[in-house]
Amino acid sequence: MREEIIVSGRMNHLIDPQLHIWNWQIPLYLFLGGLAAGILFFAALYTIMHKEKEYPTAVRLAPFITPVLLALGLLALFIDLHHKLYFWRLYTTLRLQSPMSWGAWTLMIVTPLSLIWCALNIKYLFPRWDWKYKWLFQLEAFFRKQQLPLAWLMLISSLILGVYTGILLSAFNARPLWNTSILGPLFLTSGLSTGAAAIVLMSKNAAERMTFARIDLMLIGIELFLIIHMFMGFLASTQVHIDAASLFLGGPYTVPFWLFVVTLGLAIPALLEILEIRKFYMPPFIAPILVIIGGLIFRFIMVYAGQASRWLY
Asked: What global pTM score does this model have?
């Protein structure tokens, strides 16, 4: 536990709204981690289903941005650390009860997996690509033979990463808004939704875009259900949880949450995707951009509002 406290440093300021209310690194890190997890999940899933040719963007193209997303997310987290020289102490032990330990080790697995996946598909982007050294040919051949086990490992680790982005907050029991088991599945669903939206945005294949528009529509429905269920749980709980819910039900976060997250980030994209599925022409980039922006704003609002909620003494 001592290693976690030393490494988390400034991140512990999350539990004190007076100290660190305008923190931007943590919500950005949670968003980028969830987005990368969503993209890698679909890449692994359709590889396991042997549908690489049907969904080339999901399997081969979109994963190329995940190492960048993960690197930027880790950079944001590193900037947030107060004792930066001690970050390595998270890797000296694995504590099953520590969300930060789970996150650190999951990222240690996911990041190289994303790089290996890019290397296996680099000829999709650059058909004339040729490895300069013989040992790189041999390494590629080895990983290509193990592509299915790699896909399974990436599928599981991406799900863990997506859930972890929510559990990281819910582990702070001092904040009633974060003190809910819904947060892990909610952040995972949001990450999968933004991942599907990114694939729609990048794909030039109409059939692939339509498939992922349907997937995103389903995920938006699940996300709305989880949000409603979260508020129902708060309103049926203790007074501090009712007060936490009131931040979004007439409180200072009511307008930004219901306007930018629920309406512009979920409801309107769902409506646009329904119209597109029903063969109405809609610009294909509007809905996925709204979903991605809504996912980013959602994490900022949850982090900031969580700091404003507190137990009564």
From this structure: 0.88
